[in-house]
Amino acid sequence: MCLNPLTPRLQCSNSVHLNGHTVTKNGHNPTATPAPQPQFESQASSPAPTPTPVIPREQWGGKYEFLLSCIGYCVGLGNVWRFPYLCYRNGGGVFLIPYFIMLFFTGVPLFLMELSLGQYGAAGPITVWKCCPLLKGIGIGMLCVSTLVCLYYNVIIAWTFYYLGSSFQSPLPWSCEAIANAGLCGNGTTGNGSINKALSPTEIFWNERVLGVVHSEGLHNPGPVRWPLALCLLAAWIVIFLCMLKGIRSSGKVVYVTATFPYFVLIVLIIRGATLEGSLQGVAFYLTPDWSRLANAQVWNDAASQIFYSLGIGVGGLLSMASYNKFDNNVIRDTLIITTGNCTTSFFAGFAIFSILGHMAWKKGVPVGEVADTGPGLAFVAYPEALALLPGSVFWSIMFFLMLFMLGIDTLFGNMEGITTAVLDEFPQLRTNTLHKSLFLGALCFCFYLMGLLLVTDVINQFCQDILDMICHCPPWCGKVLLYFKACWVFCTPFLLLVSEHISINVDICC
């Protein structure tokens, strides 16, 4: 048995599964032939062992499918609401300093390591450790984390579905033009200090109509399932099932739309936000650093957690998607493109968020740091209010929440791919039977839906909101860049992770 994970996989991982068969890179060789066996006179009368059949493994239809799938997996809802919220909470632009430090010395090196492991081993999170069975528990841990992420992440997608359905009403139910909100907005809806109520219509719609947090008495009385959200959750899982029914060959085509459409909507929101009164105040708050915040350990802890949350490192999705690459794919190039695109999008989305926050602050006559809600409510309070200010607000509301849905679906593709790839690699006979594979995927989605119903009761929605507040052939230059990654893997990344853990423990003790 081979115990060295760096041993060439033709001598290691493939020999474990193929029992002497000669296969090409990534294990794709439908015409594999048995390796020649030595002939012995004593074995002349014994029958030859039946060779283990080689089950072909899918590959991406093109390199752009893999790139767009990874970008869609990394660029998710956290880029729209979590990154701007962390900037908003940690002193504006100063947060960008620890964020990019953690990106270059922890995020990018570990991202490359996970992609390389998946591409070289051509296997999912569990099977890839056949070369070193001692580490197989890492893959099982990835599977558990992916399961938990899928459960709560699709609930957020269900929220976007609810807003999407509500967006077909004119006027929008959270706008001041709605009759039910006439008493909240008063006679005037523009001008400095015209709104004096404690809660805006968008905040009331979010807390009462969507979450229903005002109807729960506590954990001892979770209340009934909120059936509008339950139906939205069911629709989200049906879409996931249909898009993943044919594996990466179907999801790889879907990402051409789902990974590119959000950028179009963000550009429109930035242009519209720039025309609003007070938007420069919000952008200044976003970009002007408060240098004293660099001495706060929580700022650095939030930066490190956001890098891991946004890039989706250590969950198994990246490893699984890379396992469908060709053996000689330039993984260093892909790493630089994906990580740069992901973090640039976070920075890009911040302008859309803070231009709207600046306008909200101008309307309420308060500093930018005091407007909007915290946590995921930022995307479901600040953005809906911005949409209500746009000409043709119904159309743009539909576009925006369709964008949020696509961002969430792309990320969920990656997490679900990590789970399904792990199971299909452990039970490869499922790959050859389309019916059994479809039944497995359908049963998995249905079980996740049933467990997700626990998160759409009155009390669990409030508790889930609190949890989310706490909580993404090598050219010559590649060889030189690898020196940087080696230094990070050997020294910088472990050191910073240990320091971050030490700081986190100290912060918890002090609190």
If you had to describe this structure to a student in words, what would you say it looks like?
- It is built from 20 helices and two strands.
- The protein has 511 residues and is mostly helical.
- A two-stranded antiparallel ribbon has the order 1-2.
- Belongs to the sodium:neurotransmitter symporter (SNF) (TC 2.A.22) family.
- One of its GO terms (cellular component) is plasma membrane.
Fraction of residues in helix: 55-70%
Radius of gyration: 25 Å
- Strand content bin: under 5%
Q: Which residues form runs of ≥5 with pLDDT under 50?
A: 1-45, 187-197, 463-472
* Mean model confidence by pLDDT: 76
The helix count comes to 20
The description of the largest β-sheet is: 2 strands, antiparallel
* H/E series: HEEHHHHHHHHHHHHHHHHHHH
Protein topology:
Elements: H1 13-18, E1 21-22, E2 33-34, H2 63-74, H3 77-89, H4 96-121, H5 136-166, H6 182-185, H7 201-211, H8 227-243, H9 248-258, H10 261-274, H11 279-287, H12 297-311, H13 317-322, H14 331-364, H15 377-389, H16 393-426, H17 429-432, H18 434-452, H19 458-470, H20 476-510
Antiparallel strand pairs: 1-2
Helix pairs in contact: 2-9, 2-14, 2-16, 3-12, 3-14, 4-12, 4-14, 4-20, 5-8, 5-16, 5-18, 7-15, 8-18, 9-16, 10-14, 10-16, 11-14, 12-20, 14-15, 15-16
Salient structural properties:
511 residues, mainly alpha, two-stranded antiparallel sheet, 20 helices, 64% helix, globular, SNS_sf, transmembrane, amino acid:sodium symporter activity, symport
